[in-house]
Amino acid sequence: MLEELREHVGRRAEIADQITSTAIRRLGLTLDRDLGELKDGMPIPPGWHGIFCIWSDRTAALSEDGLPRSPDILPEIPLPRRMFGGARMRFHAPLRVGDPIVCTSEIADIKQRPGSGGDMVIVVQRHSFSSHGTLKVVEEQDIIHLPATPPSLGNPPPPKMAPGGSDLSETIQPDPRLLFRFSALTFNSHRIHYDLPYAREIEHLPALMVQGKLLAMMLLGLVEKLAPKATLQEFSYRSVRPVFADRPFTIACKQNRTEGTVALWAADADGALAQTASAKFSNADS
Prior knowledge:
By secondary structure, this protein is of the alpha+beta class. It has two domains: about 150 residues, Thiol Ester Dehydrase, Chain A (Roll); about 140 residues, Roll (Thiol Ester Dehydrase, Chain A). It contains five helices and ten strands. It starts with a helix and ends in a 5-residue tail after the last strand.
């Protein structure tokens, strides 16, 4: 299977969009952030490009899990479960309200790895966002394809506890309204985020799962609070353990001013590590 799938490495496609104040305002409301008056030319917060240039498909073309069978340039992979494993972002220049943008998507790699329930396939997608002919943001995403999980394997592995000693932290109480709003903005129809019977009966989850991208966007917001005058150059994150709706989770960060970096993490209600992240600045905070 892997050899056939790897024939798709290098496949590319483009999609055009525009940074609208309406979409930015709605994301701000979803994240409970007051952005003030939005005017053309204002830079958008780092990472918020993720609600633009979204590939979509007809409802009739969706799989049982709610996701497209073969979204954008990805090949159809005969594994029924899909998860977002993490991403790496590099910010070359700010995207601004009103900017026309073009996103070029490419399959950068396809890998096969062993897992507790059988082999998994990891597709690495590279998305390059440009405006007015200038490259602004590059993001690589890891899309994990998994075999069906029997009930006996539905529980996550033993947790690793989150670190302590943060410079800044927040506790967040997620609920289905937050998950629904974020899924709507990202046009994410994955049923584990809004369909509780499906999440419990088919995926064997205890509750609706909080989106990994949502956790990452909240961690990016924490970086902005910690170093508001610094210019973010790189941000990467990796999902470690699920976080579920209706249970509080914590986001935290610790800055290394000498190296111009920030270590970040999210922890579930029991203090278990749920997501790790790192940020790097191109200039020191002044």
